[in-house]
Fold:
Amino acid sequence: MERITNRTFEEIQLGDSCQRKHTVEEKDLILFAAVSGDHNPVHLDAEYAATTPFKGQIAHGMFTGALISAALAMDLPGPGTVYLGQNLSFRKPVMIGDELTVELKVTAKHESKPIVTLECTVSNQTGKAVAVGEATVMAPTEKITVEAPELPAISLG
Structure:
């Protein structure tokens, strides 16, 4: 099991940052489609996707957004974070096989509430930004270290 520790509102400083990596696989698109209900063939049908301007299957935009959510929940601020808002602009398509890096950077802290604003950038393996935006979260006020729950094995077929 993975142990994860948060950064409390008091510990967080302007400029604090983190990175989280993920390589996109076809199963990511299938699983995201299953839970979101978005079955657009550009995500799921290689033959159809080849006829589009993308020339192949692309990940759902909000799959990329979900990777930002994971970085907020697991890294900065970490466990106990409450996601309040997100603005996000998609700059480039995310293809199967892309190696994505999510980067978060603290840009503001509220004076009297445990509210933190983070700049969010998701880049591909060539360093090109595929999504950029800003997240607002309620940071935890108590320090915790927890075991990340084990996920069940999922098979496709």
Observations:
- Helices lie at 26-36, 41-44, 46-49, 61-74.
